[in-house]
Structures are given as structure tokens and as C-alpha cells.
Write a structure and sequence with these properties.
Elements lengths: L10 E5 L2 E6 L10 H16 L5 E6 L12 H4 L1 H6 L3 H9 L5 E5 L3 E2 L1 H8 L2 E5 L3 E3 L2 H4 L5 H11 L1 H10 L3 E2 H6 L5 E3 L4 H14 L2 H15 L5 H12 L2 H12 L9
Parallel strand pairs: 2-3, 3-4, 4-6, 5-7, 6-9
Antiparallel strand pairs: 1-2, 7-8
């Protein structure tokens, strides 16, 4: 390795009920090294264990969001590569996070990071950004979970367009096909992310987290109806539902505690 990229691991920041995971390798377009995957898993575990958290923002430094997984990392750091879970396992774990997630896309999204961002519950991008999935151009057959996610979230025709042609799409087209949930000017990005994070933080956590799980299962055609019904009963019997109804009657913002 000509440069020790392990010195720039993804960080976890917690402020109130909001967590932020940030990629710091901006000089390499925030590519994800094999050793980063284990660190990100640790961050996910810490987030799920913290019952006070209500939202996670996935962000990155520099002009690009991420170039995705560094395939050359296997050859450059075989020890870290041997220890690390797969990139696909990391993305699947991201999808299973308990709390809602927002991806802050301040620039280009490439390769595996296109699936990482797509896995977030919300993606806020900026005018002038772009994305493309170069698997077909590189001779890479993408992993099954990513293919399923593209089809379930963007539709079969858009998934074929992106995977089979490696076409580069601009911000407006990404919004049109549903890859972006919101498009803003670059200077308005943090305000938009903060506003959405505050909205999600104010929601009833039992209901929001339970419905997130159910919606993701429905998207993959694998809804656990029994578990979904059990979560619905839990919400019906919760103090939060009583608070929500009371606040509605009293015309005031509710204060939820997650019980």
C-alpha cells in the first residue's frame, strides 16, 4: 500500500437522538476499504443498542459521496480483507437498522455506494450530482441482494437501464426515477437533511420503526404478517399511542418516549 488509508475510518457521531456515520476518505472519493466494513458493522451495532436514537444520517466528506467498495483493497490488504464481512452483508445490515436512515448525497455516487445509498430510507441529493453503476462495464456480476433492491425500489426497467448499460444519470433524472427522494441546491442540503431528521425524530418510535421493518419486508415480497400484527398490537397498547391521541385532541405536538 502506497498510502495507509486505514487512518481514515468511518466515524460515528451522536448528538441527542440523531446519529451520523461519516466517510472521511475524500481524496479517494470516500471509497470503502475492506477494513472499513467491520468498523461500520460496529457502528450499526452501537446504533441499534442505543434505544434513545431516532434517526441515522449517512454522510461523507469532500465533493463526492462515495466511489463504492475498493476492489483493489483485497490485493493491497489481504489481512483486513480476510477478516471483513462482505460489502453485500454490510448493505443488508444497513437496511435492517431499527431506526429510519437518511443518506446525505452532496456529490457523485458510484459503484457499490449506489446500493448503499439506495438502502437508506431517504436520499437527499444536490443539483449537479450524478450516479452510475459500472458493473457491466467492469465485468462484475452484482450480488443478489443489490439486484433485488434495485428492482424493488426503482422497478425492473430502471434496474435494467442502470445495470445493463452503465448509463450515467444526473440529479433530475435520479429524482424522476425515484432514486432521490428529494433534490435541493447544494447550499440547502444541510437544512433539508436537518429538517427531515427533526421530522423523523418527532415521530412515535415504536410505530415508525415497526412500519419501516414491515415496508422493507413488503418491498422484498417477504412480509412477516404475524410479526407485523404483533408490533401493531404493541403500538395499540403503548403509552405513545395514548400520548399521540391526547396531543391531537389538545392541538399540541406530542412527546413520545418509545413505550
Amino acid at each position: 500500500m502506497t498510502e495507509d488509508t486505514r487512518l481514515d475510518p468511518p466515524s460515528l457521531e451522536i448528538e441527542g437522538r440523531r446519529a451520523t456515520i461519516r466517510l472521511h476518505r475524500s481524496r479517494h472519493r470516500n471509497r470503502i476499504e475492506p477494513g472499513d466494513i467491520a468498523r461500520i458493522f460496529e457502528h450499526f451495532d452501537a446504533i441499534d443498542a442505543n434505544r434513545d436514537l431516532r434517526v441515522l444520517v449517512l454522510a461523507a466528506s469532500g465533493p463526492a459521496f462515495s466511489a463504492g467498495f475498493h476492489l483493489g483493497g483485497f490485493a493491497e490488504d489481504r489481512e483486513a480483507a480476510a477478516r471483513a464481512p462482505g460489502f453485500d452483508a454490510m448493505v443488508d445490515r444497513f437496511e435492517r437498522l431499527r431506526i429510519p436512515t437518511i443518506c446525505r448525497l452532496q456529490g457523485g455516487v458510484y459503484g457499490g455506494s449506489t446500493d448503499l445509498a439506495l438502502t437508506a430510507d431517504f436520499r437527499i441529493g444536490v443539483v449537479g450530482m450524478e450516479m452510475f453503476m459500472p458493473a457491466g462495464r467492469l465485468g462484475v456480476h452484482y450480488y443478489p441482494g443489490g439486484l433485488r433492491r434495485y428492482v424493488s425500489r426503482l422497478g425492473l426497467n430502471n434496474a435494467k437501464r442502470l445495470f445493463l448499460t452503465a448509463e450515467k444519470l444526473g440529479a433530475e433524472e435520479l429524482l424522476r426515477i425515484g432514486y432521490l427522494t428529494q433534490l435541493v441546491a447544494a447550499e440547502a442540503l444541510d437544512t433539508a437533511v436537518d429538517r427531515l431528521a427533526e421530522t423523523l425524530t418527532a415521530m412515535a418510535p415504536l410505530a415508525v420503526q415497526g412500519m419501516k421493518q414491515a415496508l422493507n419486508e413488503i418491498g422484498h415480497g417477504a412480509l412477516d404478517v404475524t410479526a407485523c400484527e404483533a408490533r401493531a398490537r404493541q403500538c395499540k397498547e403503548s403509552a405513545d399511542m395514548q400520548e399521540g391521541l391526547k396531543a391531537f385532541r389538545e392541538k399540541r405536538p406530542p412527546v413520545f418516549v418509545g413505550e
